[in-house]
Protein backbone atom coordinates (compact mmCIF):
# COMPACT_ATOMS: atom_id res chain seq x y z
CA UNK A 1 0.00 0.00 0.00
CA UNK A 2 1.32 3.41 -0.94
CA UNK A 3 0.83 6.78 0.65
CA UNK A 4 -0.91 8.49 -2.30
CA UNK A 5 -4.71 8.43 -2.41
CA UNK A 6 -7.26 9.20 -5.10
CA UNK A 7 -10.25 11.16 -3.78
CA UNK A 8 -13.32 11.29 -6.03
CA UNK A 9 -16.88 12.59 -5.97
CA UNK A 10 -15.78 15.79 -4.23
CA UNK A 11 -18.19 18.72 -3.93
CA UNK A 12 -17.32 21.32 -6.59
CA UNK A 13 -16.74 23.89 -3.84
CA UNK A 14 -13.92 21.80 -2.30
CA UNK A 15 -10.42 23.33 -2.31
CA UNK A 16 -6.96 22.05 -1.35
CA UNK A 17 -7.28 23.40 2.21
CA UNK A 18 -10.66 21.66 2.70
CA UNK A 19 -9.17 18.33 1.64
CA UNK A 20 -6.11 18.78 3.84
CA UNK A 21 -8.34 19.54 6.83
CA UNK A 22 -10.56 16.47 6.21
CA UNK A 23 -7.59 14.08 5.88
CA UNK A 24 -5.53 15.52 8.74
CA UNK A 25 -7.85 13.69 11.18
CA UNK A 26 -6.15 10.47 10.07
CA UNK A 27 -2.52 11.55 10.18
CA UNK A 28 0.00 13.93 8.71
CA UNK A 29 -0.89 15.16 5.22
CA UNK A 30 2.18 15.58 2.99
CA UNK A 31 0.16 17.14 0.15
CA UNK A 32 -3.46 17.68 -0.89
CA UNK A 33 -4.46 18.77 -4.40
CA UNK A 34 -7.94 19.24 -5.83
CA UNK A 35 -7.82 19.14 -9.63
CA UNK A 36 -9.25 22.34 -11.11
CA UNK A 37 -10.71 23.04 -14.54
CA UNK A 38 -8.39 25.43 -16.36
CA UNK A 39 -11.19 27.32 -18.14
CA UNK A 40 -13.89 27.64 -15.46
CA UNK A 41 -11.67 27.63 -12.36
CA UNK A 42 -14.09 25.13 -10.81
CA UNK A 43 -13.10 21.85 -9.19
CA UNK A 44 -13.21 18.80 -11.46
CA UNK A 45 -14.63 16.80 -8.54
CA UNK A 46 -11.52 14.76 -7.77
CA UNK A 47 -8.05 15.15 -6.34
CA UNK A 48 -5.11 13.47 -4.66
CA UNK A 49 -3.82 13.34 -1.10
CA UNK A 50 -0.45 12.07 0.01
CA UNK A 51 -0.27 10.89 3.60
CA UNK A 52 3.01 10.56 5.52
CA UNK A 53 2.78 6.78 5.94
CA UNK A 54 0.96 3.79 4.45
CA UNK A 55 -0.77 3.19 7.81
CA UNK A 56 -2.18 6.73 7.80
CA UNK A 57 -3.30 6.32 4.20
CA UNK A 58 -5.12 3.10 5.11
CA UNK A 59 -6.78 4.81 8.10
CA UNK A 60 -7.96 7.66 5.83
CA UNK A 61 -9.43 5.19 3.32
CA UNK A 62 -11.32 3.36 6.05
CA UNK A 63 -12.46 6.59 7.70
CA UNK A 64 -13.50 8.66 4.68
CA UNK A 65 -14.49 6.29 1.85
CA UNK A 66 -18.26 6.57 1.46
CA UNK A 67 -18.59 9.47 3.91
CA UNK A 68 -21.09 12.18 2.99
CA UNK A 69 -19.38 15.50 2.32
CA UNK A 70 -21.53 18.28 0.91
CA UNK A 71 -24.24 15.80 -0.07
CA UNK A 72 -21.82 13.56 -1.98
CA UNK A 73 -20.37 10.20 -0.93
CA UNK A 74 -16.58 10.41 -1.16
CA UNK A 75 -14.63 7.76 -3.04
CA UNK A 76 -11.22 7.27 -1.43
CA UNK A 77 -8.78 4.60 -2.57
CA UNK A 78 -5.13 4.06 -3.37
CA UNK A 79 -4.02 6.12 -6.36
CA UNK A 80 -2.98 4.16 -9.43
CA UNK A 81 -0.47 5.35 -12.04
CA UNK A 82 -2.07 7.28 -14.89
CA UNK A 83 -2.67 5.08 -17.93
CA UNK A 84 -1.16 6.28 -21.20
CA UNK A 85 -3.63 8.01 -23.50
CA UNK A 86 -3.95 7.66 -27.25
CA UNK A 87 -2.84 10.72 -29.22
CA UNK A 88 -5.62 13.24 -29.75
CA UNK A 89 -6.98 13.77 -33.22
CA UNK A 90 -8.38 16.97 -34.62
CA UNK A 91 -7.23 20.52 -34.35
CA UNK A 92 -5.86 22.64 -37.14
CA UNK A 93 -4.50 21.38 -40.41
CA UNK A 94 -5.41 18.05 -41.84
CA UNK A 95 -6.59 17.32 -45.34
CA UNK A 96 -9.97 18.99 -45.56
CA UNK A 97 -9.96 19.92 -49.22
CA UNK A 98 -9.18 23.61 -48.83
UniProtKB/TrEMBL annotation:
Pfam families per UniProt: RRM_1 (PF00076)
Alphabetical list of InterPro entries matching this protein: Nucleotide-bd_a/b_plait_sf, RBD_domain_sf, RRM2_NsCP33-like, RRM_dom, SLIRP/GR-RBP-like
Domain RRM: 3-81
Keyword terms: RNA-binding
Gene Ontology molecular-function annotations: RNA binding
Coiled coil: none
PANTHER family found in the cross-reference section: HETEROGENEOUS NUCLEAR RIBONUCLEOPROTEIN 87F-RELATED
Protein name: RNA-binding protein
Amino acid sequence: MGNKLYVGNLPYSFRDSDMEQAFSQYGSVASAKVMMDRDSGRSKGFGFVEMSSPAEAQAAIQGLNGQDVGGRGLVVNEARPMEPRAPRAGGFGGNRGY
